[in-house]
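Anyone have tokens for Alpha/beta-hydrolase? Sequence:
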Amino acid sequence: MNPSNAASFHHRYELLSTGRRYHFVDEKPANYDAITTPTLLCIHGFPDCWYGWRFQIGPWVKRGYRVIVPDMLGYGGTDKPKETKEYSPKRLSDDMAALLDLDEIRKAVIIGHDWGSFIVGRFALWHPDRLLALILLSVPFTAPAKQYTPLHRIVEHAPNLGYQLYLADDKYTSEIEAGLHVMLPLMHRTPNAGVNFTMPGALRPIVVGEKKTWQQEREYYLEQLRQMHGPLSYYRTSKIRFDEEKAASLPSSLRPDLPVLFIWGTADPTSRALMAQKGHIAKLEEVAIHGKGHWLMIEAKDLVTEKVTDWLTELKIVPQVRARM
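Reply: yep, here.
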């Protein structure tokens, strides 16, 4: 597994029981045991794909874990439905459960970053019995809303989320696709690069007008993210999400015995208030990485890898060797 070579990972393409075909990387340790080897299911955010976890997969496998990392719906080699409703967190959570069902994995450690953090938080509400532990990177847990609030109202109180107004507007999909070579390095850059795209109206002029030279490792992202309707649909499901959660009376708190680790960068311009999640998580540990931004799996790759491994060891969620008869 070479992080610089996507082809060096073990790729699978499978039809799930939900009717969607997913592409995912599936790596097992040398001493893999279907009963005793814990599985880590890693969910990426926007704009990303399985490749965002490339620095963690190998080290976690060497520690004895099985690591499964899908391209989420709409991304890379996974199906790309046209209807926005197909991207609701409930349907994505059902896909994740079906992905585990493929190999009869009853429970797993679920890890998410960015939109992936939001989705795995909802997975923990829709499928609470499928988790050994939950790990959130960059985006904290948010409880289901008691009443629907349109995005423009949210931005009035949290202007650092203003970039989402651009991404959530379907009239800009083709424009974003054309400016992808600009937007990806902009969003993936480190916090000391001196560009803040998060405020209302700041992102579009950059995507339309700025020209940058791509670094070689970004080329894989360009290939994977050519079609942006699916990835952008995640920003366009807020009312669908609200209606689904209200109809199901989805609980506002996570399972009380579920251990949760939240890792965030103090220089992340998209970070929201963190205190709200404390009232909804009984067993929460928070880790702040000072001076790091949003893309922690890259900016602080070794620290993230080690912190997750150490935390799982403390919880005794570790690979075990069965006695052979």
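The chain has 13 helices and eight strands.
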